[in-house]
TrEMBL record, chains A, B:
Metabolic or biological pathway, per its Swiss-Prot or TrEMBL entry: Lipid metabolism
Signal sequence, renumbered to the chain: 1-19
PANTHER family assigned to the protein according to its UniProt record, in alphabetical order: DIACYLGLYCEROL O-ACYLTRANSFERASE 1, STEROL O-ACYLTRANSFERASE
UniProt GO molecular function: diacylglycerol O-acyltransferase activity
Pfam families reported for this sequence: MBOAT (PF03062)
Name by which UniProt lists this protein: O-acyltransferase
Keyword annotations of the record: Acyltransferase, Endoplasmic reticulum, Membrane, Signal, Transferase, Transmembrane, Transmembrane helix
Native source organism of the sequence: Lunasporangiospora selenospora
Amino acid sequence: MSMCILSLSIAVSSPMAETDSLPAALPRVETINRLPKVDLSAYRHTLPVHVAIAPSPLSKEAPPESYRGFVNLGMLLLFGNNIRLIIENYLKYGILISFPGSSVSKGDWTYTALTHIILPLNVLIAFSLEAWARKRAIGYRKRRSETIPQPGAVAAGDFPDPKLTLQTTKRLDASARLEQSIVGWLHALNATAILVWPSIVTYYYIFHPFMAMSCVIAGCIQFFKMTSYALVNHDFRAAYIFDKPREELGHVAKVHSDSVQVTNEEVYQYDIQYPDNITLKNMSYFWLAPTLCYQPSYPQTKVFRKSFFFKRVLEILTCLGMMYFLTEQYATPTLRNSVQAFDQLAVASLVERVLKMSTTSVIIWLLMFYTVFHSCFNALAEFLYFGDRHFYRSWWNAGNLQTYWKTWNLPMYTFFKRHAYLPMITSGVHPLVASIIVFTISALLHEVVIGFPTHMLLGYAFAGMMCQIPLIAITQPLEKWRGPASGLGNMIFWVSFTIVGQPACAMLYYYHWTKRNMDASASSV
Amino acid sequence: MSMCILSLSIAVSSPMAETDSLPAALPRVETINRLPKVDLSAYRHTLPVHVAIAPSPLSKEAPPESYRGFVNLGMLLLFGNNIRLIIENYLKYGILISFPGSSVSKGDWTYTALTHIILPLNVLIAFSLEAWARKRAIGYRKRRSETIPQPGAVAAGDFPDPKLTLQTTKRLDASARLEQSIVGWLHALNATAILVWPSIVTYYYIFHPFMAMSCVIAGCIQFFKMTSYALVNHDFRAAYIFDKPREELGHVAKVHSDSVQVTNEEVYQYDIQYPDNITLKNMSYFWLAPTLCYQPSYPQTKVFRKSFFFKRVLEILTCLGMMYFLTEQYATPTLRNSVQAFDQLAVASLVERVLKMSTTSVIIWLLMFYTVFHSCFNALAEFLYFGDRHFYRSWWNAGNLQTYWKTWNLPMYTFFKRHAYLPMITSGVHPLVASIIVFTISALLHEVVIGFPTHMLLGYAFAGMMCQIPLIAITQPLEKWRGPASGLGNMIFWVSFTIVGQPACAMLYYYHWTKRNMDASASSV
């Protein structure tokens, strides 16, 4: 370094000495000006290009580098790989799709239609029950208020016999409580019927699994809706008959909403009060609305946006078409080719099949999610001026499986939280026990939704859901270990859920389905 | 809303009225305290869960949402898809690799070894030339300084005849210039010989393309190194003979570095000055150093980090193994299966093959890049205390093809910039013309490196490189159109370069290679 400075100082001093020594013909200013006018065509190759000590960008010592480009490359490779698989599939199979529904038998159509027609009947029964209970409640309240001293009566000094009043009230209350129980049990019967009826019809009379599934799922939704309707009105009725002040309800709501973590500051107040909410119009609204939780009123939007509505409808049609195409063209051949691997229990082939299936199944699943939870629910909500469109949260960023289950299906989650988890917690049940109970109910319903339509109550769906509890216990500490920014928890979620879990389950069911139906057709021949 | 507030005010006022009207048995404080003590087991189902108007997270109206989870899913799918392809490949082919080099003939080994042995001879010739020129330059400078008045002589009044001095100087200068030219031409001959010799040997005597390529690439590197050595020393010698002040060189460097945009403030000053740099040791250092640009001295590191060096060596061995495995196990079968598609010109099959090839080829290419530009060069640099490790920049984030060509291979880029582009610019050539000339030279060399070893001078490599000029012209506005953050430019870069360009070229060459060798073996039978 010192040598460098030395040579620099020599370089600076020597030309000045030289110009000083030249004959005085040239003025000083010119000599100074001459210096920068270097002939650039000479000595240009001597330019120093290696000028400093610096690490390579990929070295540990280098400053942090962006690898965004590699993410882009990855996405392009994924895209390219799948375009290739589409071409490969086309070269191998041509076009496989047929007209949707052409493979469905006439009997299937009839029974499916019948099951769906039953649904409004179930609603009418629930409403009739409620209307009857309402009438009784008004009566009770009236008679009960007559036994209790009125403010006006007190002022006039017209006291009834307190002992007599207490007896009358007690008798009335006991009678009302009995009726409350009866109404409750009748509601339970009505709700259970709509869960059992489609399951039985499906199991015995509908062959096509997708047709059957539409019946069972509709039954389940109906079951949840009617349960919520009955429970909410049961509580309202009790408050109405026994004349509980409204802020007690408000207080319960506040306590609950603290656990639910409602975002708005004020607790939402219903616009309609019991018994005014027991109308056919109010019930029909709830029946159609994209929610499983009954409320006398919901936050309402002011306008119906036509373009928004039609965009969602277009999305539904497009996504349904895509899902149908993906199922027929990609999922079915892969599933068909997996049967042999299952038969031989060839591990490498099985893994290969599951991985081949994973891309198709994850895309179908994402389309299904988008169609139902975004397009359908938003279209329906827009049509009904239903304000709260939180049908899901950003579950795709879930760092553990619990977050996923809490965010992907909010109608279901809210139902279980409102009508099962929180009531259990406030009754003193341990949160873990309450969670396990909720997961068990959910697992049973998953088994119903998959087992009955496929006519195979194998318990895989139940087991898959029950596995979520230990998986949550594993993924939660893993997420914390590396921090949410690492994406490790999210990766584990995706792997367990969409890469391995779903395609493996689809294959298991397809295998058993094929075996059963092949054996059946073989024995019939 | 007003209705809601109204009902709230009723709810607030009515209980107070009621408690006021009760018999005075209970004190006021107690009645107030009683209110919050709600029996939580009742009315719990009435909790409002839909409390506000809110859009769905995927709606346009919703606040911006993170989709990080989908990127994770994409990466996992890519990984899963390729694990699947590995299993598929294994099930189809088993293990394909053989001992490396077992397919190389004895003649190939001999000629390859011979070519590599020639390289130091070329260095020795270049050095001898330089050493001779140095001796002559010292002589010229001495005789020239004798003809020019010395500061001491001027002071003593001992003036030589100015006319005679000018004549002598002119004659000396002309003679020196002639010798400069001769040395220049001899250097050019020597450099060209090392480019031509391996190409010819390769073309006529070495069958195995990878063995042949090692010879041609070594020749090219040698050609660049010797050219740089000759050009830099030519300029230094001129400055030395004609006694140009050092800061004129410094000024040229400064002007150049303004265009090069050197990051450090000061222009780097060489530690060694001409003619002291003309030593065998100095030349050997340059010959081995990971650069194509000769400098009398380079920024030097202070310590040799053993662990760093051995890590790089381990990386080289691992990456070479992986590249060999990928080539034998994945690239070769894909290429082999593409021949039929080429023969039939089946477009769908060809696209499928190119896309199948793309993942393998991009991974091999990335490994090659890492092995050569990171591991090899860093190991070599560490061994030689070579400080400037900028062998590449973050080209993977390149938003257009120009950025890519400027950043992926800095030794090459720096060579062309220092010894071709900047000298042309400073001579008044238009930058676009200079760029086209540089790309043409580069394209010719690409053709040499690929055409001679494969014995097929088809012009694809030349055409591929020449295509970069219009591609740059297209990608630059596209990058600006959407902004660099969109990643559009980067996507186009990856598609054109690694997804389509490289695998398509590999297939073209493989096809012609197979046809040529199959035809040859067919005609010999």
